[in-house]
Amino acid sequence: MAKHLGPVCKLCRREGEKLYLKGERCFTPKCAFEKRNFAPGQHGRMASKGGGRGGNRTGRESDFARQLRAKQKARRVYGVLERQFRRYYEAALGRRGLTGLNLLQILESRLDNVVYRLGFSSSRAQARLLVTHGHFTVNGRRTDVPSMLLKEGDEVGVREGSGGLSYFKDLGVLVEKRNSPSWLSRDAKKLSGGLARLPERAEIDGTLNEQLIVEYYSRR
Q1: Does the chain have fewer CB atoms within 10 Å around its N or its C terminus?
Q2: What's the pTM value of the predicted model, to 2 decimals?
Q3: Structural domain for 19, as ranges
């Protein structure tokens, strides 16, 4: 399971935009990015004043820097470590179709991401924690692997033994208020859902630049 032990708000500041890693807190005035929207580190504030980011005072980024930032942003959004992210890229390369889209579809089909997309958690980090603690089943079988890749037709649900916990007792009301993408099926009352199909590009975060990610790995 991917782990980031430092403050996640620094990741947003490093990318120069909100990645919504803390879920609902990111939509409130308490969000740290609202108060310190410059890159972390002793040169961060200076770089932001000069129009650059992360120590680049000229404000110009090389092609490699742009590719690296695109890759790092995707990693941080989905909470994936470098080695695993590289494996996903290699798997995407071996599939038919556009490599970049294949990569995003693989990331979207992770169990923790599907739990988050279904509205069963407020962030992917919380979804990973819930899955790791064994609160969810896939096709009726308990699993504690957040990185499990789902296939079309797979069903996800709250484990019967976890339904009595206070978190899940109150979850039904929250789930109904949260949107779920059309490529997923969901039953808010039963706290279950499934992967109806793989998402199309228009249904995935438009701020991610998969072409730059492909260029990054192609040059290595």
Answers
A1: C
A2: 0.78
A3: 1-60
Q: Other C-beta atoms within 10 Å of 219: how many?
A: 9
Q: How far are the Cα atoms of 2, 99, 156, 194 from residue 186, in angstroms, in the given order?
A: 26, 28, 9, 7
* Total domain count, the chain: 3
Question: Per-residue DSSP letters for 180-217?
Answer: --TTEEEETTTTEEEE-SPPPGGGS-TT--HHHHHHHH
Cα–Cα distance between 186 and 165 in angstroms, integer?
Answer: 20
CATH number for the domain spanning 100: value is 1.10.1050.10
User: Which one has a higher pLDDT value, 71 or 49?
Assistant: 71
Q: What is the pLDDT of residue 2?
A: 47
In the numeric block, which tokens belong to residue 219?
Answer: 């040059």
Two tokens, residue 20: 């919504």
Cα 14 to Cα 167: distance, rounded to the nearest angstrom: 33
pLDDT tens by residue, 97-137: 999 999 999 999 999 999 999 999 999 999 999 999 999 99
Q: Which helix (H) or strand (E) holds 57?
A: none
